[in-house]
Give the backbone structure.
Amino acid sequence: MEQLGTILESHNGKARVLVRRPGACARCGACELGARPEQVIELPNPRGYPPGTTVRLVVGPGEVARASFTVYVIPLAALLIGFAAGELLGRWTGHPSELLVFVTGILFLLLSYRLLFLWDRRTRRTRCTPAMEAVFPGEPASSPEA
């Protein structure tokens, strides 16, 4: 995934970059780029790009795939495991019920969302950090909506 931004400040090996969110980011939220329509994020600036430089922010395909897996596959797996657990619980108690299967599946789904939320809060700063590449020194970024 690529996104354009403009460096506002640069000091101590870090840069504050103004980023305009593309439409696809609004539905994902896996990284810092999806929080607001326009935002300033702080990123490492090992090449020392000066303020006013338009930079391309690149998130590797592995990070995007990992985020998609986390957001979609883990909750789906929890839902299916919950359905199976509800079925087994109903057989074990001798009162199988579609309502029990449904409720257990929903509980597992909600539990997976809660656990992912807690995991996200603990790992937010250590993952999905875009890399910067200079595009046009001194020109403001105009980011097309994706």
About this structure: Residues 1-59+130-146 form one domain. The two ends are 10 Å apart (CA to CA). The chain has two domains: 1-59+130-146, 61-127.
